[in-house]
């Protein structure tokens, strides 16, 4: 997964439309249909991360791309926008260095080399954490986890509100994905029906050739709220998180020598998580929720 995005797990296609069995599996009882879907706190409320002295910092240059909406994209006015862009600005505000901050968009394929060459100080662009990247760079604490979810056809007579109610029923999944492996590992009683593409899976769900599907919550949340679904379906149970299957989540990548800056960004992320600003950004770009 060299130079891969979290989009590599079937994210980018939907969002660009306008894209170890013992591993800990967490299920947060939340619904995408809530008026104010909540964002799980990734920082312990009792944890206090020191705020390093950045008075000697000349500038902080965030690098991102423009091909991963709603995380980063160019809006109708040609302005760089997105969840990651707004978060970078909030980090700078929290660290009281807004006047020293810059956000630059470059091609995704160039991000790693640009950071290594000190053409920027931090990459915030949905890069998946890999062992190879960890040998060269350091990463902030995660600021957003991307769960897996079920989605059900509302016409299917499913009696219950948990995955157990799907036992024996056809549940679609995209063949060869981490979600297919995760479904088999954690829900062996379910009758998996593999499809070759995401589009084929969603079409089968809409036509009720399967009663439910299991996939990435990010793509599903956008689909169920879009005209493409024709209000046929709704998110169901979960969400489900597994670092083994789904990775470490959304992080910021920095050079190994920049330990002070990494600590400062972790401090800012923790503060934004606790004071509600991270939740505000989340709701701005994910009004229907992932959790």
From TrEMBL:
Keyword Signal appears in the UniProt entry: yes
Chief localisation class: periplasm
Domain named Solute-binding protein family 3/N-terminal: residues: 59-289
Localization, UniProt: Periplasm
UniProt-listed SUPFAM superfamilies: Periplasmic binding protein-like II
GO annotations of cellular component type: periplasmic space
Record bears the keyword Protein biosynthesis: no
Signal peptide segment: 1-32
Keywords for the protein's UniProt record, in alphabetical order: Signal
Name of the protein: Amino acid ABC transporter
Organism of provenance: Rhizobium pisi
């Amino acid at each position: 997964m060299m130079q891969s995005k979290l989009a590599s797990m079937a994210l980018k296609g939907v969002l660009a439309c306008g894209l170890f069995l013992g591993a800990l599996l967490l299920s947060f009882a939340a619904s995408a249909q809530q008026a104010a879907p909540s964002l799980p706190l990734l920082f312990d409320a009792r944890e206090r991360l020191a705020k390093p002295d950045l008075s000697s910092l000349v500038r902080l240059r965030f690098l991102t791309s423009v091909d991963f909406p709603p995380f980063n994209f160019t809006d109708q006015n040609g302005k760089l926008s997105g969840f990651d862009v707004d978060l970078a600005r909030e980090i700078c505000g929290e660290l009281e260095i807004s006047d020293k901050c810059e956000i630059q968009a470059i091609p995704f394929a160039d991000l790693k080399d640009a950071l290594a060459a000190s053409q920027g100080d931090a990459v915030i662009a949905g890069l998946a954490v890999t062992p190879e990247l960890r040998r060269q760079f350091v990463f902030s604490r995660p600021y957003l986890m991307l769960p897996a979810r079920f989605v059900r056809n509302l016409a299917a007579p499913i009696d219950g509100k948990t995955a157990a109610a799907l036992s024996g029923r056809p549940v679609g999944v995209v063949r060869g994905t981490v979600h297919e492996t995760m479904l088999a590992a954690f829900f062996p009683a379910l009758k998996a029906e593999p499809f070759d593409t995401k589009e084929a899976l969603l079409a089968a769900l809409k036509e009720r050739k399967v009663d439910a599907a299991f996939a990435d919550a990010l793509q599903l949340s956008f689909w169920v709220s879009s005209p493409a679904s024709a209000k046929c379906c709704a998110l169901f149970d979960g969400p489900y998180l597994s670092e083994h299957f789904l990775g470490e989540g959304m992080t910021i990548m920095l050079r190994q020598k920049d330990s002070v800056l990494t600590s400062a960004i972790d401090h800012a992320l923790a503060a934004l998580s606790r004071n509600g600003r991270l939740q505000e950004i989340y709701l701005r770009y994910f009004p229907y929720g992932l959790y």
